[in-house]
Amino acid sequence: MKAYAFAFAIIAAASMAGIAGASSYLRVVEPFNSTLHNGGSIYLGNDGPGQPFFINALANTTNSTGVLIYKGWSFMNVTGEPYGWIVTNSSKYEYLMSVEVTPSPNAKPGIYAFNVTAVNVGNYSKLGIVRFTAYVNITPNVFKLSVSPRVLSSGPGQPKSVYITINNTGVSDSPFEIYVRGLPAFNRSLEVIALHHTSREFTYQVFENEPGLYKAMMYVDSVDSPQVHEEANITLSVKASIQNDYNALGYGSNAFPIIYEPAYAVMYFINLIAKHI
Predict the structure, then answer these.
(1) Backbone angles phi and psi of 196, in degrees to 5
(2) What is the pLDDT of residues 142-166, one digit of tens each?
(3) Which domains does the chain have, with CATH numbers?
(4) CA–CA–CA angle 233, 234, 235 (5° rounding)
(5) Residues 6+ apart with CB under 8 A from 72
(6) Closest CA to 72 of 33, 39, 24
């Protein structure tokens, strides 16, 4: 609740700065749209320790007489960042200016501030500067995880799909890694991207070669921040049957005695052909 109250105060302060009437402005377009004047401020939202994020803004603005200057701002830079943070300033003379900010991986939870400045080189267009304060809330709680189904049934070596929904409520586009633990068979990890402020569903397949009832855990970690982590338990029931063995053969599994029986092998190919008719 403190972060939300702080965000409201920042938005109100930024609005008052706009009302103050500086003619030059900066149009921020990522991580969300905002128009800022000199001395203003912006609350960016949540980010995980070590997760890089971008602030993107357009180069166009107006001069002191209200005339639109298409590439008024020459570049954008960051100053006053907290100790241990990494900053990459924007290139010069691009229409879309972009700064990258990476908080320290050891940053403790809390709200941090730094300055962002839009510069008109040599003040050629008589714009002065626009400098504003950006605030970001560092927290490991930057996404919500949904896993379905939680209970699955398959045959030995037969993959089953688990649907992973990642609701990224933070400002970073840092990739996530999806993996499972608790199954003896080797299940590969999957690297995915759920963009900031979006929700996206991914399909992850799990399998086990030996019959049994397995209690496993699905994990989703931020690639850039081990502290950003969610997990969910799943149950996989693996049962041997002729039909399941046929299906497993179709996935390349060859660990079943059934394949050594010529009659069963013929039945498998008949079953495979029937699926494609």
Answers:
(1) -60, 140
(2) 999 999 999 999 999 999 999 999 9
(3) 2-138 (2.60.40.10), 143-240 (2.60.40.10), 241-277 (no CATH)
(4) 135
(5) 24, 59, 60, 61, 62, 63, 120, 125, 127
(6) 24
Please write the tens of the pLDDT for every residue from 188-212. 999 999 999 999 999 999 999 999 9
pTM: 0.78
pLDDT in tens, 227-271: 999 999 999 999 986 555 555 455 444 444 444 344 445 455 555
Which pLDDT score, from 0 to 100, does residue 269 have? 52
Q: Give the pLDDT confidence of 23-54 residue by residue, as tens digits.
A: 799 999 999 999 999 999 999 999 999 999 99
| Residue tagged 């840092």 (tokens) | 174
**Distance set, CA 94 to CA 68, 74, 134 (Å):** 16, 7, 22
Q: In the numeric block, which tokens belong to residue 165? A: 């929904």
- Structural contact between residues 105 and 225, judged by C-beta atoms closer than 8 angstroms: yes
- 63-68 long-range contacts (CB < 8 A, ≥24 apart) are 63/23, 63/24, 63/125, 63/126, 63/127, 64/23, 64/24, 64/126, 65/23, 66/23
